[in-house]
């Protein structure tokens, strides 16, 4: 609510002097008005949050029946039709199951996906469920490349609402499906807050908060060394990210936004035990999904 509380001295707005108060004697009415607006805004935020929580925990559907196929220009092989659902991380498409068929037919599926999205350079498929404390596919064939160059290590740069992170698809856990939730959390972080991002993985949660909010500090804790290295590379990119100037994180200065982010490697229970009480105003402790224990 934007409204003056007093008149300028002499009726001139640029006089710099305070004139008579407009609401003297009506403090109770003014407080009631402000509180009503405040409650109304929080009601809208609660409705938005409920809508986000009600969203299905699935990737965005990809329409396999594109214009070329509707016009009869698609592949003649039904096995070469790409699946309706898959994730896109950076320039890599990730299918959550290995397509049926021969190796040539699987490669045709990958090529079909890459034809529909020219930004995709590699098409991959997961061959087993995530397991272990890292919740990562691993280097032992957990992810196979269907089409595109044989990139090793399988590392890509993923952009989410203007903030970038580095993802090692074989050695770290990351899902682009949590993008809306990360954005919702950023909207709740207030100016001057000290935030702890536990189990932060490649650091996208911490990077978003550092670059998008006016928090005082963000501490990212992760014990997977590969994910920590990805987070540190993401922080270096944040220092040069011009998108931060439009997001107003760190006062609009990318370097200040990156300076707010501290990245620690280790067990969060051991690291937290050595910290002072009330070190943080907000703690994020996401539970990784898509594993054998879910």
Secondary structure topology:
Elements: E1 6-8, E2 18-21, H1 27-53, H2 67-70, E3 87-89, E4 92-95, H3 103-116, E5 122-126, E6 143-147, E7 155-160, E8 163-168, H4 179-188, E9 194-197, H5 204-212, E10 217-222, H6 225-238, H7 243-247, H8 254-259, E11 261-265, H9 268-273, E12 282-284
Parallel strand pairs: 4-5, 9-10, 9-12, 10-11
Antiparallel strand pairs: 1-2, 3-4, 5-6, 7-8
Helix pairs in contact: 4-5
Q: How would you briefly describe this protein structure?
A:
The protein is α/β, with parallel strands linked by helices. Helices cover 32% and strands 18% of the residues. The protein starts with 5 loop residues before the first strand and ends in a 10-residue tail after the last strand.
Explain what you see.
- This protein is an alpha/beta fold.
- Among the domains are: 81-152, Met-10+ protein-like domains (GMP Synthetase, Chain A, domain 3), CATH 3.30.300; 170-284, 3-Layer(aba) Sandwich (Rossmann fold).
- The protein has helices spanning 27-53, 67-70, 103-116, 179-188, 204-212, 225-238, 243-247, 254-259, 268-273, and strands spanning 6-8, 18-21, 87-89, 92-95, 122-126, 143-147, 155-160, 163-168, 194-197, 217-222, 261-265, 282-284.
């Amino acid at each position: 609510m934007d409204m003056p509380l007093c008149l300028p001295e002499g009726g001139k707005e640029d006089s710099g002097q305070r004139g008579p108060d407009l609401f003297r004697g009506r403090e109770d009415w003014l407080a009631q008005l402000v509180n009503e607006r405040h409650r109304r805004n929080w009601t809208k935020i609660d409705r938005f949050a409920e809508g986000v929580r009600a969203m299905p925990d699935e990737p965005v559907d990809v329409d396999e029946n594109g214009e070329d196929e509707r016009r009869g220009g698609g592949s003649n092989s039904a096995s070469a039709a790409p699946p309706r659902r898959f994730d896109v991380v950076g320039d890599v498409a990730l299918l959550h199951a290995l397509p049926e068929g021969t190796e040539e037919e699987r490669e045709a599926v990958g090529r079909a996906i890459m034809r529909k999205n020219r930004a995709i350079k590699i098409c991959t498929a997961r061959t087993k469920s995530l397991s272990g404390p890292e919740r990562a596919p691993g280097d032992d064939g957990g992810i196979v490349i269907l089409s595109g160059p044989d990139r090793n290590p399988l590392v890509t740069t993923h952009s989410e609402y203007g903030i970038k992170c580095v993802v090692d698809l074989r050695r770290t856990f990351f899902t682009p499906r949590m993008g809306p939730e990360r954005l919702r959390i950023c909207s709740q972080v207030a100016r001057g807050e000290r935030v702890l991002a536990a189990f932060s993985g490649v650091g996208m949660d911490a990077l978003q908060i550092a670059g998008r909010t006016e928090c005082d500090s963000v501490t990212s804790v992760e014990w997977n060394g590969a994910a920590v290295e990805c987070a540190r590379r993401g922080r270096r990119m944040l220092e040069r990210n011009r998108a931060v100037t439009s997001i107003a994180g760190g006062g609009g200065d990318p370097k200040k936004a990156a300076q707010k982010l501290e990245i620690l490697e280790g067990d969060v229970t051991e690291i937290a035990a050595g910290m002072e009480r009330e070190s943080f105003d907000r703690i994020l402790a996401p539970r990784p999904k898509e594993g054998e224990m879910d």
